[in-house]
């Protein structure tokens, strides 16, 4: 197959969808397909172009069957709803340079990964010009998230964006997403069931495997074996609502051996650090992201993991960090509505605990309950088994590859 993948996020980014896009493209290329990728410079979650990519303009990286077309884009110093829209639009416009160069190249299928929404619209238009089938892969229902979180307040703009989203969902040859909750939302917007496919986010279950406390990064990062580590690792952004952890740390300050550890970067990090300092909280530590190769060891140092979301996003996003947590046999406390698909996964498979989003006292009490629970080892065993059965990189990427083959077979040129 000759495949074009279009996404603002890509390797070497490991936060958000960048890792999944990079691994998908590499998998397809390793299996004999010819893959072109149009993407931006790596900038996330730091919101800063990495040093080795600065000032390069439009350029190409090629290894074997895989060619990556990099495009510059506007990256705001301070991320707001307004300049984030400009940021996403700048990628759409800047990518036209590469799209025009590829106009006369043959593609069997095009894939657009959302968010942002423009990452669906641009390759969809291109696919119609090329008369090639188009797959719209949804990592995040961005319009609903923006509406529910109040990130965009202009109703006309929201309705305009919702109209574009609905058109793409109804007219793409295949629509895929990563969770049952997202599937329900997508089908409710008019996507025909026969055009929908589930392709969950995956994990390399050989790389991410359970490790002992001694094999973890615990001692290297300055923690003792008697510390009770409650870990949040991932993007520190608006959708997560991590300000609740400041309140939780305040509740737990009387327990000297319980330490909340926040590992990551993002637009809300500086604000959280300042709030913790203002309250004099010594039981919360902020650490920078570790190298991807060290991520299994870092995750394995935790007694309990936190997967925090705001109430408004419970069934609109599926936290990608959860797949890595489960693979290392981690036990998670997840904030999600009880009726959400995320809650069902945790409760039905006995993988951890679910709390109502934005309820700091309930979260603090659940942390205490979890750290003293006799079920911890049982949940750890269940987590690893769930990852092996449902989240294997080999199984899910094979399914994605088969989906593309099916689509091409049903759309002969």
Automatic annotation (TrEMBL):
InterPro entries: Glyco_trans_1 (IPR001296), Glyco_trans_4-like_N (IPR028098)
This protein's UniProt keywords: Transferase
GO MF assignments: glycosyltransferase activity
Domain (Glycosyl transferase family) ranges: 215-376
Keyword field contains Transferase: yes
Domain Glycosyltransferase subfamily 4-like N-terminal: 16-202
Pfam family, one: Glyco_trans_4_4
Protein name per Swiss-Prot or TrEMBL: Colanic acid biosynthesis glycosyl transferase WcaI
């Amino acid at each position: 197959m000759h495949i074009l993948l279009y996404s603002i996020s890509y390797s070497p980014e490991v936060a958000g969808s960048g890792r999944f896009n990079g691994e998908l493209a590499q998998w397809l290329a390793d299996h004999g397909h010819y893959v072109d990728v149009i993407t931006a410079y790596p900038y996330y979650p730091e919101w800063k172009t990495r040093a080795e990519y600065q000032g390069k303009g439009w350029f190409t990286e090629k290894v074997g069957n895989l060619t990556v077309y990099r495009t510059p884009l506007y990256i705001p110093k301070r991320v707001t709803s307004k300049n984030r829209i400009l940021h996403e639009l700048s990628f759409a416009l800047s990518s036209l340079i590469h799209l025009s160069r590829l106009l006369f190249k043959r593609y069997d299928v095009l894939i657009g990964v959302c968010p942002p929404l423009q990452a669906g619209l641009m390759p969809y238009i291109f696919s119609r010009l090329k008369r090639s089938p188009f797959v719209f892969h949804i990592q995040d229902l961005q319009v609903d998230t923006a509406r529910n979180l109040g990130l965009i307040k202009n109703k006309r703009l929201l309705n305009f964006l919702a109209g574009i989203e609905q058109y793409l969902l109804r007219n793409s040859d295949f629509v895929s997403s990563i969770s049952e909750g997202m599937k329900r939302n997508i089908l409710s917007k008019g996507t025909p069931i026969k055009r929908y496919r589930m392709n969950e986010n995956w994990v390399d279950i050989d790389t991410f495997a359970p490790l002992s406390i001694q094999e973890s990064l615990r001692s290297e990062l300055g923690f003792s074996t008697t510390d009770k580590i409650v870990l949040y690792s991932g993007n520190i952004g608006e959708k997560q609502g991590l300000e609740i952890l400041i309140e939780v740390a305040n509740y737990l300050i009387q327990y000297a051996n319980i330490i909340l550890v926040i590992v990551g970067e993002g637009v809300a990090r500086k604000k959280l650090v300042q709030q913790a300092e203002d309250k004099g909280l010594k039981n919360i530590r902020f650490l920078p992201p570790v190298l991807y190769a060290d991520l299994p060891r870092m995750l394995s140092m935790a007694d309990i993991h936190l997967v925090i979301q705001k109430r408004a996003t419970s069934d609109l996003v599926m936290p990608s960090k959860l797949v890595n947590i489960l693979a290392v046999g981690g036990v998670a406390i997840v904030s999600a509505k009880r009726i959400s698909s995320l809650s069902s996964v945790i409760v039905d498979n006995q993988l951890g605990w679910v709390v109502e989003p934005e309820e700091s006292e309930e979260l603090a009490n659940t942390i205490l309950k979890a750290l003293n629970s006799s079920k911890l080892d049982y949940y750890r065993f269940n987590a690893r088994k769930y990852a092996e059965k449902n989240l294997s990189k080999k199984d899910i990427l094979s399914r994605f590859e088969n989906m593309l083959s099916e689509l091409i077979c049903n759309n002969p040129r």
